[in-house]
Amino acid sequence: MFQILIGIFGSIIGSFLGLCIARLPKGESIVSPPSHCDACGRRLGAVELIPVAGYLIYRGRCRSCGAPVPWWYTGLELLTAGIYLSLWYRFGPTLVALKYAVLASLLLVIAGIDLRTYMIPDSLVLVGLGCGLLFLPLGEVYWPEALVGAALGGGILFLIAAASRGGMGGGDVKLGLVLGLFLGWQQVLVALFLAILAGALMGVILIALGRKRRRDALPFAPFLTAGTLGALWWGRDIINWYIATFFGL
Ligand SMILES: [Zn+2]
């Protein structure tokens, strides 16, 4: 029963995150005007506003002008619901789960904006740093480990950005600070490792398919998001395996 409520809650938040992705890069308010069709400007009705179901009922089209509704809104609603449920299973009904739900939501907006505009807004990085500091007293990550994590996350991405000469942007470096603050130094290493692995793999695939050239930039925030979620799920296991394998402990 709780799972259903969390799924619904996640899809409603996901709907709001989609609005942020669509509006923030254009400098528009995320509060007003209310959701409307981008093509004809008509304000959406109650049924259309229901996450996922609204899209299915009207077959992905505006009720009055027939313009297609971008599919990624619905995809994001489902993704957010899935992530919230996975955090619930992983951390239970705790403040820690809330902390990572906040981080994941912020990362989804940043990743979405990065995919569409190749930019990470500084305002969102500041929100991330603020939230990271707010959750520090929770003590789930001991605060010195969080500060070292921030330095390490930002530092490693800064070195990669410097070495890649434009392949990775300053926004990614600042995002590294946020991730370290939330995750602590051990987990942020896992997150960066997974992100770089996934990014390199995707780069090779896109080059092989002829979709990208070697020097083309790849928005990296989506990979940092995936890496962070991977670290939240498997970070402990990866760290334990690493210590056991290389230090025999
Ligand atoms: Zn319309």
TrEMBL record:
Membrane topology: Multi-pass membrane protein
GO function terms (MF aspect): aspartic-type endopeptidase activity
GO process terms (BP): signal peptide processing
Domain Prepilin type IV endopeptidase peptidase: 102-204
UniProt keywords, alphabetically: Cell membrane, Membrane, Transmembrane, Transmembrane helix
Domain Prepilin peptidase A24 N-terminal: residue ranges: 8-91
TM spans (from-to): 96-113, 119-139, 146-168, 188-210, 217-235
Family: Belongs to the peptidase A24 family.
Protein name, entry field: Type 4 prepilin-like proteins leader peptide-processing enzyme
